[in-house]
Amino acid sequence: MATVRKLLDEKGETKIHTIAANETVYQALKAMAEANTGAVLVTDNDKIVGIFTERDYARQGEVKGRTAKDTIVGDVMTKQMVMVRPETTLQEAVELLRKYRVRHLPVLENDKVVGMVSIRGLAEGLLEEHKGTIIELENYILGTGYGR
After folding, report:
1. How many Cβ atoms are within 10 Å of 144's Cβ, its own excluded?
2. How many CB atoms are located within 10 Å of the residue 12 CB?
3. CA-CA distance, 38 to 55, in Å (whole number)?
4. Helix (H, G, I), strand (E, B) or coil at 55
5. DSSP label at 143?
6. Interstrand relation of 104-109 and 112-118 (parallel, antiparallel or unpaired)
7. Residue-range domain boundaries for the chain
């Protein structure tokens, strides 16, 4: 069964995108847009203290009367993060996403964040892992590929 490590290895670059807790939500959104990511880890004195996601902005931002340029990331970030280790299987990671209703999982190894996996990356990884089975089932259902 494939692991989170395999996903990170296939991804190649494992740049960790961060924003300081005292920066504005606008700065975080700008950093997320530039990095083409839906989440950034939040730091305080180089220590990770939370995660800020598009969902945090959607639920804690404008709808609550806060403007992105005047709101501090530390005030709206998610403090309780769900993390995984590189050895975590893709299926286990998906179960954590479902259980905790999150879309991003920081990957922790030797007390250091070494990457982040998203719901999309996990879905793609699981699809690739089961691709052979899917093809076999399609062939069986369609009656093709079996010694005709």
Report:
1. 9
2. 6
3. 8
4. helix
5. T
6. antiparallel
7. 4-142
Rounded to 5°, the CA angle 118-124-127 comes to: 140
Going by C-beta distance under 8 Å and a sequence separation of 6 or more, which residues neighbour residue 4? 84, 85, 86, 87, 88, 89, 90, 93, 105, 107, 115, 117
Domain 4-142 in CATH 3.30.930.10: no
User: Is the separation of the CB atoms in 66 and 29 below 8 Å?
Assistant: no
Give me the tens of pLDDT residue by residue for the chain, a chain 148 residues long. 889 998 888 877 668 899 999 999 999 999 999 999 999 999 999 899 999 999 999 898 888 899 999 999 999 999 999 999 999 999 999 999 999 999 999 999 998 899 999 998 898 888 887 777 777 777 778 877 655 4
